[in-house]
Amino acid sequence: MKITLKVWRQKNINTAGKLVEYQLDNVSEDMSFLEMFDVLNDSLTRKGEEPVAFDHDCREGICGTCSMYINGRPHGPQTGATTCQLHMRSFNDGDTIVVEPWRARSFPVIKDLMVDRLAFDRIIQSGGYVSVNTGSARDANEILIPRTIADEAMDAAACIGCGACVAACKNASAMLFVAAKVSQLAILPQGQAEHKERAERMVAQMDAEGFGACSFTGACSVECPKSISLDHIARLNREYLGAKLTSDNING
Amino acid sequence: MAWVTQTLSSSLGRKVIMSLTGLFLCSFLIIHMAGNLQLFKGDGGRAFNEYTYFMTHNPLIMTISYVLYTSILVHALMAFILTRHNQASRPIKYAYSKPEANSAWASRNMGILGTVLLLFIIIHMRTFWYEMHFGSVPMAEYDGKEYKDLYAVVQVAFGELWYVILYVICMVAIGYHLWHGFQSGFQTLGLRHKKYTPIIEFLGKYFFAIIIPAAFAAMPIYVYLQVHHII
Amino acid sequence: MKLESKIPEGPLAEKWARHKFALKLVNPANKRKYEIIVVGTGLAGASAAASLAELGYNVKAFCYQDSPRRAHSIAAQGGINAAKNYQNDGDSVFRLFYDTIKGGDYRAREGNVHRLAEVSVNIIDQCVAQGVPFAREYGGLLANRSFGGSQVSRTFYARGQTGQQLLLGAYSALSRQVANGKVKLFTRTEMLDLVVEGGKARGIVTRNLITGKIESHSAHAVLLCTGGYGNVFYLSTNAMGCNVTAAWRAHKKGAVFGNPCFTQIHPTCIPVSGHYQSKLTLMSESLRNDGRVWVPKTKEDAEKIRKGQMSPNDLSEDKRDYFLERRYPSFGNLVPRDVASRNAKNMCDEGRGVAKTGLAVYLDFADAIKRDGQKTIEAKYGNLFEMYEKITGENPYEVPMMIYPAVHYTMGGLWVDYNLMTTIPGLYALGEANFSDHGANRLGASALMQGLADGYFVIPYTIGDYLATIGPGDKIPVDSPAFKETEQKIQEQIKKLMSIKGQRPVDDLHKELGHIMWEYCGMSRTAEGLKIAKEKIQALRKEFWTNAKVLGDADEMNQALEQASRVADFIELGELMVDDALNRNESCGGHFREEYQTPDGEALRDDANYAYAAAWEYQGEGNPELLNKEALIFENVKLTQRSYK
C-alpha cells in the first residue's frame, strides 16, 4: 500500500506546530498503525530527519498511552479500539491520513503527537479512591456484591484513561472519564462511605483543570476504546447533585 | 451559602440550570400550543381572543409568565457562558475533524439552533406580545364584553408569505433543538433508567421535536391560506 | 561475596510470623523523618509507595510513563492466585506453596514462596476493599477459575483485565497518598543510575524525559520496582518502554543479578506477521481451558495450509495431532507454560507449523462451541476473540485461532534476601525486578500475586528493620560528591550516545539483539549456540557504539535517545544471560538446554550440581562477571521430576 501522511510536527510546548506531509510506499495491511509510524521513523532517521515523537507503550490496547487523532477521529476509524489496535487494513491504497495530537487546553502538546495528560491523574488524586490503608481490610467474601452490580462496576472500571473522550468531545469535556471512576465506586458498597465528597471533589477538580461541560453529544462514548456508556455520566450527575443537596459541606 | 454559588457556577451546576429552564420551557410549549389550537376553530377568532384575555388577566398565569421570561433569559445567558467556556477548553482546533462519525448534528449545534430561536422569540414577541401589551390592538366585542382582537394581529402577520416562511424555518430549528434538548435535560439531572429513558427519548423525539413544531408551523400556514382564501 | 539469604529459622509455616516479630520497628513519630525512593509504579511499585506512605514515610515515586497507571502490570489478563479455598476444592497455603515451588522447577527458595502463599489471601481482601471489581457469582460471592497448570480453582479475576484492575486499585491508593502529600510523583522521569556511598544506596540520578534535565534524588532507601527485562528479545509481550536500565545500572553499582537466563516463554501469543512487527500480543492463558491445541499430523498437510491451499477446517479429526493431549493425558492442554511452549516449538521445528511463516499452532474452539454454544464461549472470552480478530483480521469463532510462544516474563532479576534487599544495603528490588519467588518458571496468575505481596505485605515490614538500624540522620545531600560524580558520568554517557552519529537507527540494532537472543537463548539452548550468541552480542555491542544513529537533542523529549540508552544496557545484559545459560548445565523450567533432556524430551534437572541460584557479580568494564552461588535448601518438598503426564 501507498500512504500519504500528514503529521502534526511541533518541537515543544513553546513552539508553533504544523502539518508535515510524508509518503510511505511499502505499507503492509497487516501492520498496526503504530508499526507504520515505526517504519516512518526508521526512514526519517536514516535520512537524517528527526523522528516523530508519539506516545505508545503496551501496544495491546490497555495502557491508554497511545493518543492519535486520526482522520478526524480519536484512535482512528475503528470503534472500541485504541490507536495501537488499529491496523492498516482499515485503510486503502493511496489514502491520505491526517494525524494530530489530542486537542484540549488541559492536554498541552509536549512534542509532535505527544500530550500531557496529568490533569487526569490530578482528578483521580482528588477523590478517585476508597480510603483504605493496607492491612485493614476484612475478608473479601464478607462484602456480598451481586454479579450484576460487579459487572456494572467493571464496565465503568474498564476506563484506560487515554483521553479519547476529551479528544472527541466538541467541548473537550472530561465527563466520561470522571463519570467512569465516580460511577464505579458509587455502584460498589466499598465506595459508599465517601461517595458524596468523591463526586464533589472530582467534579471541582475537573472544572479547575479547564475541561469543558457535557453537551451529551455522545461522541465520547462512541470513541471510547472501552465503549463506556453514557449511563455513567447520568450517574455522575445524580451523584453530584445528590451530594451538593445533602452533603455537610457548606463551603462549596 | 458558598455551596449554592459554587454548585451553580460548576460546569454541572450550569448544565442543571440549562436543564431546568429548558424543561420548563418545554412544558410551556405544550400549554402554548394547546391554547393556540383555538386558531383552528374557525369562529372568526373568538375562542382565541377569549383565551388571550384569560392568559393576560389570570394572576397565576401572569406570575408564571414572569418565570417564563426569566427562564428564557437565563437559558440564553447560561448557554452563552457555557459556550464561551467550552470553546476556551479547546483553544487550538483540529485541522481535520469528522464529528459526524460519532455524534448527531443537532447535539453539536445547540448553540446555533438556540441563537436562531432567541431571534425568533424576539421577533415573535415584538409581533404579538408587544402589540398586545403596548401596541394599538383593535377591539372585539363578544356577549357585550370587550376583548383585544389579537386574532386580527395574527391575521395581518401571517398574511405575509415571508413571515410564514420564517416561522416554518424557526419551527424546524425548534424541532432540532428539542430532538436533542429534551432528553439531554433529563440526562443532566441524572434521570436515566433502563425502563424510563426509552419513553423520554420517544417523547423528546416524536412529541417535542416533531408534533409540537409541526402544530406550531401549521398555524401560520393555516392562517395564511385562510386570509388569502385558498381554503 | 557471601550471599546471606536471611531465611528465618523455624518451621516453614512459622518463618514469616517469627521474622515479622524479630524485625526492628521504626517508631511512628520517626517515620516521617525517612525518605524512600520507589522506582516504577506497577503493581509492586504503586502498592509499596502507597503502603509506605500510609505508614508515614515520605515517598518519592518515579515512572517513565506519563502516568503511574500505565505501568505494564496493567496488561496482565488472566488473574491472581490466592489460597482462599473459597471453592472448597482442597486448596491451602501449603498447596499454593507446593504448586509454586514445583511449577518453578525447584529453583526458588522455600521460605520466600511460602510467605508469598501466606500473604496471597490478604491481597484479595485488600484489593476488594479498594473497589477492585473482581468477578462474582450471582449470590455475590467471589468467583474463581482454575488457571494454567493448577488443579484447584484459586484464581481471582476481573474479566480479561485483572492486571488493569489491580493496578488501578494500587494506583488509586497511590493517588490518595499523593493528595495527602506523602508521595511526590515524578512521571516521565527515568532512573539512569543508583548512587552508592559508604556501601549504602543513597539515592538515584534521573533524566526528565520532557526537558532532558539530569537530576539527583536522595533518600534513606531505594526500591526498584522496575519490572522485567523481556525486551532484551526485542519482540515480547512487554510494553515498548519496559527496560532493564534501572536494575542493570544498580547491578553495575554492586547489586548481584540472580538467574538472568530464566525467562518465561508464554505459549499463547498471536504469531508474528512480518519483519516490521514491534511487539507480540498475549492471548490469556485461560483460553487453554476450552481451546484445544493442534497441528496437522503430516508435514504435507501443514505445507498445504501454509500455502493457503487448504483451510484447517477441512482437515478431518484423524489428520490432526492434538499434541498436548496426546503427550500429557492428565493435564492435556493445561500443562504449564514452559512445557506448552516447548512442545509448540517442537511441532514447528518438525515442519508441522501453520501460518504463512510456519511458526504457529492452532488453538481450536470448535469443540467448546459445539459443547457449550457460542454464547457461553463469547461470555467467557468475547473480548479476547475480538482482540484477536482486530489484530489478525480472522474470526476465531469460524477459523481456529493461531498461536505461538513469545517472551513474556523474566523470573531472573536482582538477587534479594528474604527482606527483599539486594546486595547493596538500602537497595531493594520488588516484583518482577527481583529473582526470588518463581524459580525457573512462573505459574500463571502468580506474577500479580508476587508484585502485590512484595509491595503491600512484605516491604512495609522489612524496610523498617534497615531504617531503624541506620537512623534518620544517615542520608547524604544531593550536592555531595557521590551524587555529582554520578550525574557527571550520566551526562558523559548521554553525550557519548549523541555523538556516535552512525548509520543505523537504534531500533534496528535492538531488533538484531532480539534475533540473537531468540535464536540462541530462547526456548531451547545449546552450549554451541550460546557460544555463538556471545560472539555475536560482543560484535553487536561494538557496532552499537560505533554505528548507532541518535538524532535530536539531549535537552528535550527524545525517544530515540531513551531507547539508545536502554538498548545499550540490554546488550550488556544479553551477554550475561548467555553466560548464565551456558553455566547452567541442566534443563529446568524455562531454561531448556537441548543436551539435558529425558528420553521423551522433558527437562532434565541436575539437582546435585545446580540446585542453586546463580548470582552474578559485576567486576568492572570488560571483565567477566563473577558467579556466586546461593544453595537452595529444600526441607519441605521432595525434589522430583516435574511430570504432567
Text of the CATH class of the domain at 266-407 in chain C: Alpha Beta
CATH class category name of chain B: Mainly Alpha
- Helical/strand content category of chain C: alpha/beta
Question: CATH homologous superfamily of the domain at 266-407 in chain C, by name?
Answer: Succinate dehydrogenase/fumarate reductase flavoprotein, catalytic domain
Mass-distribution shape of chain B = globular
Quaternary class: heterotrimer
Architecture per CATH nomenclature, i.e. the level-2 architecture of the domain at 266-407 in chain C: Alpha-Beta Complex
User: In whole angstroms, how far apart are the ends of chain B?
Assistant: 60 Å
Distance between the termini of chain C: 41 Å
Query: What percent of the residues of chain C sit in helical stretches (DSSP H or I)?
Result: 25-40%
What is the C-alpha radius of gyration of chain C, as a whole number of Å?
A: 24 Å
Mean pLDDT of chain B: 95
Approximate strand percentage of chain B: under 5%
As a percent range, the share of helical residues of chain B equals over 70%
Number of strands of chain C: 21
CATH fold-level topology of the domain at 266-407 in chain C: Flavocytochrome C3, Chain A, domain 1
Described by strand count, sense and barrel closure, the largest sheet of chain B is: 2 strands, antiparallel
Low-confidence stretches of chain C: none
If you compute it from the alpha carbons, what radius of gyration of chain B comes out, rounded to the nearest whole angstrom? Answer: 20 Å
Q: How many helical stretches of chain C? A: 18
